[in-house]
C-alpha cells in the first residue's frame, strides 16, 4: 500500500514537473499530429494521378452533400450543387465565347459576391489560372497588375464599368478580351457576359480539358503591395493553394462549422484561408460584400456562424463599438486571422466570450508561416522543433538605419538571441520553394538573400522583424523599410511617393508610417519639399491623393521640409521622421492633416493632435 502511494506521488510529481517545465507539451504534441497529417495529405494529393486539386475536392463535396448550402449571401442561399452547375455554365459560356484554353490566365476584377466563387471554379474546370485584382486599383496600377500575369481575358463586375472603360483602349490594343458581368454592353470592345452565362448549358466539363494541370501549375495570382513600387503578383501553385486551404483544418475547424467571410476575396485571407478552406472542410460560407461593424454580430447570429476570419483591425473595430446586452449571444467559437494585438485579444475574450483565437503569420508571397496553436495572447506563433526541421527559418540581426542584415567579418549573417528582434529569413528548399512574383524577376531576386550562413546558401527575406521569447513564442515587431501596415493592408511607400510626386508643386517626397497610440500598424505620413516659389495647395493635394490612392494608403499627415535627409547610399532616412511623429509641438515644419469632412488637407493644430491621441478623433 505504502509503495503504491509513493509511486503515485512520484508519478504525479514528475507530471507536475513536466507540466511546469513544459507547459505547452500537450499543445505541441497536438500540433505535431495535425502538422504531420496536413503535410502527409498534401503529399498524397501530389501523388494522386491525375492530381487532386481544390476543384476535385469541391466536386467530391458536391457528390457527398449536393444540397448542403455552400454560400449564403444576404437572403440568398446557394447549395454545393447550385454552385457546381453555375460554374459549369460559366465554363461552357467561356468556351463558346472566348478562345481560352488550358493553362491560360484570366483576370477577375470583382468584389465579394457569390459569382466570384463560381467564376473561379468555372476557370478551374477549364484548367485556367485566375489572377484576382484589388477592386480599388485604377488606371496605371490596374494595367500593370493585369499585364504582369500574362492574362488574356478580363472579367469585371458591372459596378466597375467606369474603371474598366478608363483602361479599355490599352487593353484592346493588346487584344485582351474584356467581359463585363452585365446583360448588355453599350460600349464597343466591352462584351457582356451575364446573359451568355445564363444561356449556357450546365453540363459538366470533361476533366480532359484540365488534364495537364499539375501541383506545380499556377492556380492563383494574388497581389501584394510589396516593398517597392507597384503591387506584385504572388504565384500560388496548386500545391500552395492547398497550403492555404488546409489552414482551417490546422485551426481546428470541423465539417459542422459555418464560416463568415467579410474580407475581400481578392486577398489571401478571403480566398485561400476562407473560401478554399471552406471547400476543404466542406462547410457553409456566409459571404459578405463588405465588412460592417454594425452588422457583424447580427449576421453571425442570423446565419449561425461558428468561425470568423479577421485581420487585426476588424477585431479592434468590433471592440470599439458600445457594449450591448447580447454581446455574448452567438455561436462563434473560433476566430482565425492575423494582426490582432494583445489588448484587443483580451477585450475580445472579455466581451464576446470564450472564442478560441488562432493567430497566424504568413506573408502571402512568403514561404514560411507560423500558427499560434497554444492561444498565447499576443504571439503570432510558436517555435516547434519538427516544423522548423521541415521548414528551416531563423531570425538574423538587422541594421534598421542601413536597412540591411548585419554581417560579420566573414560576410555572414548573425543569428539573434532569444528575446532580441531580428529579421525573419527562411531557407529556400525543395520542401519550401519560393515561387516568386509573376513577370517580375527583379523583385523575385530582391526577396532572396544569399550567403547567409554559408557560401552559396539561399534564403527568403520576409521583410518582417520578429522576436522569439524564452518560452519559444514568436512575436511580430515591425516591417522593414519600404512598407508599413495600416488597417491590415501593406502600404508601399514608394508607390505612394510616386503618386505624390505627380503634383506639380511637389519637388521631392519621403513617405513613411508613424505609430498612433491605440492603433495596429502605422498611419501614412509624408515629408515633402516644394518647388521653388510654390506653395502647398491643400485642396489640390486632397483631390489628387483621393483619386489615386485607396483610403488606407493616403498620407494622413504631410510635413513640409526644406530638404529631405538622405543616407550616403542615397536612401531616404525615415527613422528620425518616424520618431518625430505628427505632434505639432515637436515639429517646427508646416504640418497638415487630411480632413475628409473639408475635402482638404488642413493645418494641424495641437487640439487636433490631442483629440487623436485621446481617441476622440478616430483615424
Ligand atoms: C492583335 O491582333 C491582330 C489581329 O489578329 C494582330 O494583327 C496584332 O498583331 C495583335 N496585337 C498584339 C499586340 O498581339
Ligand atoms: C512554401 O512553398 C511550398 C511550395 O510552394 C509549399 O508547399 C509550402 O507549404 C510553403 N511553405 C509555407 C510555410 O507556406
Ligand atoms: C489650388 O488648386 C486648385 C485646383 O487645383 C485651384 O483652383 C486653386 O486656385 C489652388 N489654390 C492656390 C492657393 O493656388
Ligand atoms: C475644416 O473643418 C473643421 C471642422 O470640421 C473646421 O474647424 C476647420 O476650420 C476647417 N478647416 C478649413 C481650413 O476650412
TrEMBL record:
Belongs to the ATP-dependent AMP-binding enzyme family. It comes from Chanos chanos. PANTHER family: LONG-CHAIN FATTY ACID TRANSPORT PROTEIN, LONG-CHAIN FATTY ACID TRANSPORT PROTEIN 2. One of its GO terms (cellular component) is endoplasmic reticulum membrane. InterPro entries: AMP-bd_C (IPR025110), AMP-bd_C_sf (IPR045851), AMP-binding_CS (IPR020845), AMP-dep_synth/lig_dom (IPR000873), ANL_N_sf (IPR042099). It is an enzyme of class 6 (ligase). The keyword rRNA processing does not apply. It catalyses: tetracosanoate + ATP + CoA = tetracosanoyl-CoA + AMP + diphosphate; a long-chain fatty acid + ATP + CoA = a long-chain fatty acyl-CoA + AMP + diphosphate; a very long-chain fatty acid + ATP + CoA = a very long-chain fatty acyl-CoA + AMP + diphosphate. This is long-chain-fatty-acid--CoA ligase.
Amino acid at each position: 500500500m505504502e509503495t503504491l502511494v509513493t509511486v503515485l506521488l512520484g508519478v504525479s510529481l514528475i507530471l507536475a514537473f513536466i507540466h511546469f517545465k513544459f507547459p505547452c507539451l500537450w499543445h505541441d504534441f497536438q500540433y505535431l499530429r495535425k502538422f504531420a497529417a496536413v503535410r502527409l495529405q498534401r503529399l498524397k494529393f501530389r501523388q494522386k494521378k491525375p492530381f487532386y486539386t481544390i476543384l476535385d475536392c469541391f466536386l467530391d463535396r458536391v457528390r457527398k452533400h449536393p444540397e448542403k448550402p455552400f454560400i449564403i449571401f444576404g437572403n440568398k442561399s446557394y447549395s454545393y450543387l447550385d454552385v457546381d452547375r453555375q460554374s459549369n455554365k460559366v465554363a461552357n459560356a467561356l468556351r463558346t465565347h472566348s478562345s481560352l484554353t488550358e493553362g491560360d490566365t484570366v483576370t477577375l476584377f470583382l468584389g465579394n459576391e457569390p459569382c466570384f466563387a463560381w467564376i473561379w471554379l468555372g476557370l478551374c474546370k477549364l484548367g485556367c489560372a485566375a489572377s484576382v485584382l484589388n477592386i480599388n486599383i485604377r488606371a496605371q496600377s490596374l494595367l500593370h497588375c493585369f499585364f504582369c500575369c500574362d492574362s488574356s481575358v478580363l472579367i469585371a463586375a458591372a459596378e466597375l464599368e467606369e474603371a474598366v472603360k478608363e483602361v479599355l483602349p490599352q487593353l484592346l490594343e493588346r487584344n485582351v478580351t474584356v467581359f463585363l458581368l452585365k446583360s448588355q454592353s453599350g460600349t464597343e470592345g466591352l462584351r457582356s457576359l451575364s446573359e451568355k452565362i445564363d444561356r449556357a448549358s450546365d453540363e459538366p466539363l470533361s476533366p480532359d480539358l484540365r488534364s495537364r494541370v499539375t501541383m506545380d501549375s499556377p492556380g492563383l495570382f494574388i497581389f501584394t503591395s510589396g516593398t517597392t513600387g507597384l503591387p506584385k503578383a504572388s504565384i500560388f501553385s496548386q500545391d500552395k493553394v492547398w497550403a492555404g486551404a488546409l489552414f482551417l483544418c490546422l485551426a481546428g475547424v470541423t465539417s459542422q462549422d459555418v464560416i463568415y467571410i467579410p474580407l475581400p476575396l481578392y486577398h489571401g485571407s478571403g480566398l485561400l484561408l476562407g473560401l478554399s478552406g471552406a471547400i476543404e472542410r466542406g462547410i457553409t460560407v456566409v459571404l459578405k460584400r463588405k465588412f460592417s461593424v454594425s452588422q457583424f454580430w447580427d449576421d453571425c447570429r442570423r446565419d449561425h456562424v461558428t468561425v470568423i476570419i479577421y485581420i487585426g483591425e476588424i477585431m479592434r473595430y468590433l471592440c470599439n463599438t458600445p457594449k450591448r446586452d447580447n454581446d455574448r449571444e452567438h455561436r462563434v467559437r473560433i476566430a482565425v486571422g492575423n494582426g490582432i494585438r494583445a489588448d484587443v485579444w483580451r477585450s475580445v475574450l472579455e466581451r464576446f466570450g470564450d472564442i478560441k483565437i488562432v493567430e497566424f503569420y504568413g506573408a502571402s508571397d512568403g514561404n514560411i508561416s507560423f500558427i499560434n496553436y497554444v492561444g498565447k495572447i499576443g504571439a503570432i506563433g510558436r517555435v516547434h522543433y519538427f516544423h522548423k526541421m521541415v521548414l528551416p527559418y531563423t531570425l538574423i540581426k538587422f541594421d534598421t538605419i542601413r536597412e540591411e542584415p548585419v554581417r560579420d567579418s566573414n560576410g555572414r549573417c548573425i543569428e539573434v538571441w532569444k528575446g532580441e528582434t531580428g529579421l525573419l529569413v527562411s531557407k529556400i528548399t525543395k520542401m519550401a520553394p519560393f515561387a516568386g512574383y509573376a513577370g517580375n524577376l527583379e523583385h523575385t531576386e530582391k526577396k532572396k538573400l544569399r550567403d547567409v550562413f554559408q557560401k552559396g546558401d539561399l534564403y527568403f527575406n520576409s521583410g518582417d522583424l520578429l522576436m522569439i521569447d524564452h518560452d519559444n513564442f514568436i512575436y511580430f515587431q515591425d516591417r522593414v523599410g519600404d512598407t508599413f501596415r495600416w488597417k491590415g493592408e501593406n502600404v508601399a511607400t514608394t508607390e505612394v511617393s510616386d503618386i505624390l510626386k505627380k503634383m506639380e508643386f511637389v519637388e521631392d517626397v519621403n513617405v513613411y508610417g508613424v505609430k498612433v497610440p491605440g492603433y495596429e500598424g502605422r498611419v501614412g505620413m509624408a515629408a515633402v519639399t516644394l518647388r521653388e516659389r510654390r506653395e502647398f495647395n491643400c485642396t489640390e493635394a486632397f483631390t489628387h491623393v483621393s483619386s489615386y490612392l485607396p483610403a488606407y494608403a493616403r498620407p494622413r499627415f504631410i510635413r513640409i521640409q526644406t530638404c529631405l535627409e538622405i543616407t550616403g547610399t542615397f536612401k531616404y532616412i525615415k527613422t528620425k521622421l518616424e520618431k518625430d511623429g505628427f505632434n505639432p509641438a515637436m515639429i517646427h515644419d508646416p504640418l497638415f492633416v487630411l480632413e475628409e469632412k473639408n475635402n482638404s488637407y488642413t493645418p494641424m493644430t495641437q487640439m487636433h493632435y490631442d483629440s487623436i491621441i485621446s481617441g476622440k478623433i478616430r483615424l
